[in-house]
Amino acid sequence: MKKWLTQNLGLKFLSVICASFLWLIVMNINDPVDEQRFVGIPVELTNTDAITDEGKVYQILDNTNMINVTVRAKRSVLDQLDRDNIHAVADLSEVSVTNMVTIKLSSNRYSNQIDSIRSNTEFLKLNIEDVRQKQLPIQISAIGTPEEGYLTGTVTAGQTVVRIKGPESVINRIDSVQAVVDVSGMMSDVSTTASIVLYDADGNRVEDDSIQLNISSVEVKVSILATKSVPFTYHVSGTPAEGYELTGAIVGTYDRITIAGPQNVLDTISSIDIPAEVLNVTGQTDSLNALISLDDYLPSGVIIADEEHTGLLGVSVGIEPLETTSVMIPEGQLRIFNAPEGYEYTIVNYSGSSISVRAIPTVMAGVDEQSFVGEIDLSGYFEQQGVYEPADGVYSIEAAFVMPERVTQVQRLYVSIELKKIVEEEE
Fold first, then answer.
1. pLDDT surpassing 90 at residue 398
2. CB neighbours (10 Å) of residue 390?
3. What pTM value is reported for the model?
């Protein structure tokens, strides 16, 4: 038996080697070693407080927290693996001076049957900097145009300040915070929620996932006001200096103004009243010029609708000096009546005369001199004299004039009238 075992020993060893080799060949043909790529494997971050506890914040650079992993193993093993079996971990307590962390790879299945596991990115790249907090006012505004005949009124918010926190470099870029509401086509008050948007000094939006806000939106209310065009009503008080009078002209820099407010309030307004105490002409020797702030005379809740309007109204109250003027009275403007019974009369030695009147130029410019008619009541004149049977002769009698409004007669006019008794002829 021993002789049989030791006989042809070399051939027997060769047979064993060949059989083993053949077995390996068969096994590799049926279950070869291969590689499989798993895309989009997230890197789990651990011990993040190693950075945050120091008052710092980190940002992941170049998307290095999302990697592709290649696993090398037999096909039978690879067929049993999926992306959920691949774990990628970065321990932030091991961050290097260059702000990089080694990504450690593993599999929770068949780990002892995997030849190798590698990724396209070996390190997690970080940007680490100090945390900064900042508090900014929220600029609330409305855009768009309401329905025709309506105007955007006040814009108010439930909260006016926002607190932001994040990397110092990012927070330093933020210059303003805005919340905007669109009121296009609106006819009634708007109540809505507006998102908070961050902007830099150039008006560009600042968007960064590392920014933390205490609120992301704010409740906003916008009042929508009706509009109406109304005139001004002026009231004047006081009396100009002696020898001066009001012309009656009150001129504003504009005649009407468009106002805006709640419809029920506008329905009660027919004009904007400028009170008398504002236009006090006491002692004035020249036209009174006043600059009036209209906000003082608008009802509560009513505003000026014209955005370009300054809210100031210039008003001029006309005042002129009294002047004495001579008015020629031709004979045709003398009316003599009520002659005593049995008498006849004639005007003698009258070629036209004048009277002096006093008024401001504006008033005189509107007076027709033909309206100055002198009236002589002959019977009334003699009754005042106590004469009931006047003798024939020439009498100088004052002509009475009715002055136009705001005109004063300052010189009398006497007319010579010859009076004769009518003598009846005998038959």
1. yes
2. 16
3. 0.57
